[in-house]
Amino acid sequence: MILPSPLLVATGNPGKLREIRAILGERSPGELHYLREFVGYVPPAETEPDYLGNARLKAAHAALELEMPALADDSGLEVDALGGAPGPRSARFAGDFATDALNNAKLLHDLQGESNRSARYRCVMALAFPDGRLCVAEGVCEGSIGTEPRGEGGFGYDPYFVLPDGRTMAEISAEDKNRISHRVLALEALLRGLQL
Predict the structure, then answer these.
(1) Is 59 helix (H, G, I), strand (E, B) or coil?
(2) 22, 89, 118, 175: least buried by Cβ within 10 Å?
């Protein structure tokens, strides 16, 4: 399935854009844009309580405002010992303007003394069209939270997210990440849904 062209990837996060470009590969539309190209565009506040609501909100808003199909995701880390936190607030876990370092420091602080470190990355992907049509899909990648950062790749919580094979998400190659991540699983599910 080839996505519509032009297509807007409704994110200002260059890490997400790189991953989505790589995941799409040859299925990438001829014209692929992202939010930083549109000076003056103001994305909506992520006010929804869950990934689905935020992904739909971001995709629908961008599609309407910029008058082209828009692909958006909302994703996060869910840690069982923290009741599923940070969840949809993963990017703002340590505050509205938190850096990856601050978010990771808070995560490790909150997990002090916890023996259950099971966790997962979850992603909901939404594709919205200016006429109001909307397609959504979800992907999940299981793992656990390590005690020390390992690896140079990825972004966000990746240096602490330990996969079932013992490597962190930051230790695997970008190609391997783009085969197993929550984002690729959500995008593949979305593409399958578009074939119906």
Answers:
(1) helix
(2) 175
Tell me if 168 is assigned to some domain. yes
User: At 134, is the secondary structure helix, strand, or coil?
Assistant: strand
Domain count, the chain: 1
| 46-84 residue pLDDT tens | 889 999 999 999 999 999 999 999 999 999 999 999 999
**CA dist 166 → 32, 121, 170, 172, 176 (Å):** 35, 16, 12, 11, 14
Range of the domain at 16: 7-194
Query: Does 89 reside within a domain?
Result: yes
Which are the catalytic amino acids? 74
pTM of the model: 0.90
**CA–CA gap between residue 115 and residue 83 (Å, rounded):** 14
pLDDT, one tens digit per residue, over 91-142 is 999 998 999 999 999 999 999 999 999 999 999 999 999 999 999 999 999 9
CB 145 within 8 A of CB 79: yes
Return the CATH number at 36.
3.90.950.10
